[in-house]
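Technical note accompanying the year-one report. For the benefit of new consortium partners, we illustrate the data format agreed upon in the data management plan: each record pairs a sequence with a structure-token string. No post-processing was applied to the example shown here.
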Amino acid sequence: MVDYGGESPPSRSAVAAPNFRIGGGGGNGRHAGYGYTEGSLAIPLGERGGVQIDALGGISQENGFAGSAVHLFTRDPEKGAIGAYASYLYGNGSYKDGGDYEQGVSQAKVGVEGQLYLDRVTLEGLAGVNWDSLDDSAGLFAEGRANWYATDNFKVNAGLRYADAFGGDRTEVVGGAEYLTQFTTGTAASIFGDVAFDVGGSDRGGSDVTAMGSLLFHFGTGNKSLIRRDREDYMPTYLGRDAGDLPRSVNVVARPGAPGAPELLGPPERRDRPARPERAERTACQDRTARRERRGRQGRRVRTDRPDRQAPERQHCTREIHRGSLP
């Protein structure tokens, strides 16, 4: 009987067995910090095929986001993998779209992904077309990385990433690392970190350096090292990085338009809104009283045997203010 050192026997299938990962992470995106929880489920489709479903939800600034992705692939654990990829990500904030403001933003991706296994090196890539609701048009995206496994449970990677979305394009140098520790119960946990440096493009605004990290728990295929899990269990996930690239959301308030017209949206710092009618009435009342009192002080002798002619109006202003009709 072959001894695998306490690990599960090697698999020749695209997905060794149904397995899932769940965890959470966060970082500083292009415009703000963000945090999320995520999960992935991989299922074999015969001996050479597999399907993986990813899901993610989180918060950034004052808005939330959620997304999902699906991988349909074929794989030989000793050679490599190739398949189709599709994802959808939605942010529920308010976003500036030219001179208008759009409630919610969407991004969809469709592409091809692949991996090549060379001893302790794995070359991986993803490329395709993306669409976003702000541009309402399609652009290209691509990412390629070289992973080197220093040990069976620790890897580092580096590569390039390109995206044309949300009104600009950008090219980034990316790199990361992951470490996995196994438990005696057949489960495992891994810590992952990733950083990106913007090196070119016409992207409008945002940080040139972004970073993210996550903690994942693995279930379903017994005791396995990181290199085997990457080649026998699942495909890479991309939703966490995509969430960090969402555009900046803004706070907007409704501004009244013409009678019968829909309310307009704009940032709260806009100062072209008309004054409140009750405030204008209060100011006019106080100004009239103050002018009359100044005229009396500037040369008109005050008769003590006559009632104060300004008293009724002054009392009216005071009474209305205290009553609350003139706040």
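Partners are asked to follow this layout when depositing records. Confidence is low (pLDDT under 50) at residues 269-273, 300-304.
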